[in-house]
Amino acid sequence: MEKIINRDIRFWPVFIGATTGVVLEVVATLVDEIIVGNLFTDAAFAAVNLIEPYTVFEVFIAYLVTVAGAALIVRAHGAGDHEKMSELFSQTMIVCGACGMALTLIYVLFTPQLVRFVADNPAVYNDAYDYFKVMRFYPLIDVFDTFMFAYVLYRNGFIHFYTAIISRISVNALLSWYLGSRMGLMGIGLASILSLVVALTIKLTFLFSSKHSLRFRWYFNPREVLEVIVLGFPESSISAFFVIMEMAINGFTLKRYGVDGVAAVAVVINIFEFMIYISEGISEYEIVAVNDSIGKESSSSMDRAVKTTKKAVFIEGAVFLCLVFFMASAIPEAFDVDSEETARLAAVMLRILAPTAVFVCLSRATAMFYLYTGRVSRTIIIFCMAIAVMPVLFGVVFGQIAVEGVAAGLAFGPAMTVGLMCVFVRFVKKEKLFDYSILKLNG
């Protein structure tokens, strides 16, 4: 029996599948910035990054109202309740449409004010305005796409999943280069929307087969919608905290170090976010393994899950530490940063950031462990501290000394968060960091 349990949750299939999907999705979102860096000036590159918090906020809203909804549909599928699946699917699609239209309306009505809020500098305002003028319509497609992204993945539609992502990257790269060279930053934004339409269309074909088809109906239950929001908030909060961090760091850097400073810091922020997203592979394995252990009521299974998670955290963290440190000079070149001084600054800051990779992975794994062992408040606090509060606090403090101090603040954030959480659970709660004694598990 013990041997069978050992083979129940295999690390590599879950880790590789989730990591590959996240890498492709992150690459898809980075295409715009890489092409902008190669086609336009550092000021244009800075402008696009100044607008990015609004795009990330769309991701927060999309995850908040759809990802947990997709999980509930899968739960109904597991129960064999096809009628409930259709109701939940229809309700989520209605909520997607409402959220997409509401967010787009806000962006359209307050375009100048929103652009000025993040790009109140003559050197970047016009470029930021041109880019946002198109990207303000992005939520109309993005919220639907996020829901189908989660739903297709959860229903094991891997062919549609990977085909959609690869198609999005390819179409976006080709159209961004073509339209960007003719229409400027407006063309870059238009390419993003068109490539997302292609990806969404491919994912929707998953519903064409009789096996996966669901009947749409006008169904809306406010209590169920609230349940979805509550379930989805802890993980979707990552995007909300990204918005806070990017706005605060970019705003501080723009005022103190100008456009060149923002261009250098933007490279570092992109890599910092990439570290957090790429740790998704670890947390996806952890989610499956921890919930499997809870279902089995097996402490020995939980021990193995925690041990494997810890190994993955330190191995992946070490790998990314080395990659970022040794590729620090090449990464700004990928974004085609024009100024040699700006590229040099970005490379120095990337080397300062590199050691935080281990703590980024550890903070993500710890947060997800607490989410699925009933300590949800700790999950939200860890994400808030590691992504927003600590990086902004130390980034602004250290940034007063030099622009490189901003990177030191970003690096210090996750490390300080993990340290404080260790102190809290060890001396206040009398626990270990990955403690599951709250659960009633048999040996």
Largest sheet: none
Mean pLDDT: 85
User: What share of residues are in beta strands?
Assistant: under 5%
* Gyration radius from CA atoms, angstroms: 22 Å
- Overall helicity: over 70%
Low-confidence parts: 1-8
* Count of individual helical segments: 17
Globally, the shape reads globular
How many strands in all? 0
Element order, helices and strands? HHHHHHHHHHHHHHHHH
The class by helix and strand makeup works out as mainly alpha
What's the multimeric state? single chain
User: First CA to last CA: what distance?
Assistant: 13 Å
Summarize the structure.
With 443 residues, this protein is mostly helical. The chain has helices at residues 2-6, 11-39, 42-78, 82-109, 111-118, 125-135, 139-154, 158-183, 185-204, 222-278, 280-296, 299-326, 330-334, 340-353, 357-371, 376-399, 404-428.
SSE blueprint and pairings:
Layout (H helix, E strand, L loop, with lengths): L1 H5 L4 H29 L2 H37 L3 H28 L1 H8 L6 H11 L3 H16 L3 H26 L1 H20 L17 H57 L1 H17 L2 H28 L3 H5 L5 H14 L3 H15 L4 H24 L4 H25 L15
Helix pairs in contact: 2-8, 2-10, 2-11, 3-4, 3-6, 3-7, 3-10, 4-7, 5-6, 6-9, 7-9, 8-9, 10-14, 10-15, 10-16, 10-17, 11-12, 11-15, 12-14, 12-15, 14-17, 15-16, 15-17, 16-17
